[in-house]
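Why show two proteins at once? Because comparison is the fastest way to build intuition. When a single record is shown, students tend to memorize it. When two are placed side by side, the eye starts asking what differs. So, the first record is below.
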Amino acid sequence: MADKMLRITQIKSGIGFPKDQKATVRALGLKRMNDTVEQADTPVIRGMVFKVKHLVRVDEV
């Protein structure tokens, strides 16, 4: 189903942003600045990335 992957990197700190955005970054699997994870390209993950697009960088793998 999701044969494409997304490489998501946190480029900005969550300090000073609402708790729900911090929780979204954490739910993506990111713990600190410059941390990178690979997630399947699904509508759920795309929605999470859209919510915190100002805190992360996304590359299609």
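Second record. Ask yourself what differs from the first in the token line.
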Amino acid sequence: MGVKPLEDRVLVKPIEAESKTASGIYLPEGAKEKPVRGQIIATGPGKRLDNGKRAEMTVRKGDTVVYGKYAGTEVEIKGIKHLILRESELLGVIEG
């Protein structure tokens, strides 16, 4: 089963934060922060403009992005948690 986002939405696989601190202390599940970074798995075709054309998406499959802590809708695909977000909910693209 695959998911193809509609309009200006993107499918993001969250990148989990490290479970161990720099000093070597392991963090319990309850102490971990909710992920705010992820990799784009799929993008929609873009938002339809008033003239009938579609706006080009500014992010591509494979980009690593930053999003708000409580942004998007969580979905589970093949047992893996993903997020569906609007492109406008993305805060930035991590380069490099």
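One difference worth noting in the second protein: The two ends are 31 Å apart (CA to CA).
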